[in-house]
Amino acid sequence: MEVEAVQKQVIGDAASWSAQPPRSGTVSGFHRNTELDVLGQQQWEEVRQRHAAGQRVSAIARELQLDRKTVRSCLKREHWAPYQRAVRRPSLLDAHREWLQSRAPQVSFSARILFQELRTQRGFTGCYELVKVAVRPLRAAATVASVTQMRFETTPGEQAQVDWGQVTVTLGGVRTKVHVFVMTLGYSRRGYAEGYLNERMASLLSAHERAFEHFGGACQTLLYDRMRTVVAGLVEDGSRARLNETFSAFADHWGFTVRLCRPYRAKTKGKVESGVKYVKGNFVPGRSFADLEDFNAQLAAWQAEIADVRVHGTTHQLPIERFADEAGALIAFAGRRSFLQAMVRERKVAEDWLVSIDANRYSVPFALIGKTVQVTRESDQWVIRHGGKVVAEHAILAGRARISIKPEHGPGALSRNQRQRFSADGARASNVGRPAERDVQVRDLAVYEQLLQAELREAA
């Protein structure tokens, strides 16, 4: 049975439970003729036949397990009529039904929270008991849905699922939180995992490309929850999610389709969630690592030696063997240029001759202050260009709020270079006889800027 059908059935049953008291051997005092209303035609005829045969009301009630009042009422009716549900009376909650159904899962079906929000935000004037009764079938439907999840299987290369997991491990003797990227192929269940120090866009894109390289390609569709690096918000009418522009361009570059889980339905991507749990439960315990590089080296070995060659609990096959049927269906990775290397970022050089890239700052020649430069990622370096020429190269910094400065980019570089050049060839008489090595006075950078401006005016 489909989950939606189960939910409708449970909601309908629960609604009837809330509208009627439970059946019993006696009729509840607050609901008149409930038992009589639901007597079937055969049972109604049986009551009348027994009475016609001379059986007393009390004997009929005892043998048929009915209330005596029900038997008397049945004998008063000349014709049997099928049960008809009474027309539901209007409720103060009618105007809030749709809101209640969408909001209830978000607050874990808390009738108290829903009641408070209805009173303060939506002008509801009813009582708490009314809300509690209305939430009951919704909670029951969610409970049934949670235990009747249908497993969604995909064909080779059709879908992969992506998620992050967090683990706290020892890196070089220091307890450190590592963010583990996991991609699981839907058909073969083969996974790729890699640790990062954050979940920012650069880490996400890098992890994807390394996963594509590991598998030799990408699936047609990739499934995500609504992580901030993938989803930028909602479109203007609020009908659907709006993808992050950079991530959307990344998906277009590699040719895969982005699919998002429905809100509060994280179990939609259960394959990758199982993969995250597997990494946490099988790889992490009892290990220590020298650094993040060592963490990833051990993780890669574990994937090849353990994860890929285990018998999977669902498919009952080895992921690496099942992958043989999936590899040919992937979007080919080989020979295609990395998106990170193809992506050009424009940055304006600040007054401190630094440019900001992914929350860190890197120096460029100070003469470019106020100019716009182009930044690309090549391997593990940021390459910065201006006018088509490379003006700076920096190793990519890990973490945030860190600075990489090269001395040759600073305002004092021109003066130092001139002193070294003139002292080497003895071109100026004023340098003759001066000691080869002198103590250098440390000055504020503003002094060097003033000297530079003076030198530039003289040169002009």
Key features of this structure:
alpha+beta; 16 strands; 460 residues; 16 helices; Nucleotidyltransferase, domain 5; 4 domains
Characterize the overall form: elongated
* Architecture (CATH level 2) name of the largest domain: 2-Layer Sandwich
Query: How does the helix and strand content classify structurally?
Result: alpha+beta
Helix content: 25-40%
Q: Mean pLDDT, rounded to whole units? A: 79
CATH first level of the largest domain:
Alpha Beta
Strand content: 15-25%
As laid out across the biggest beta sheet, the strand order is 3-2-1-5-8
Contiguous helical run count: 16
The radius of gyration computed from the alpha-carbon positions, rounded to a whole number of angstroms, is 37 Å
The CATH topology of the largest domain is: Nucleotidyltransferase, domain 5
From the N-terminal CA to the C-terminal CA, the straight-line distance is 85 Å
- By CATH, the superfamily of the largest domain comes out as Ribonuclease H-like superfamily/Ribonuclease H
In total, how many domains does the architecture comprise? 4
Q: What's the β-strand tally? A: 16
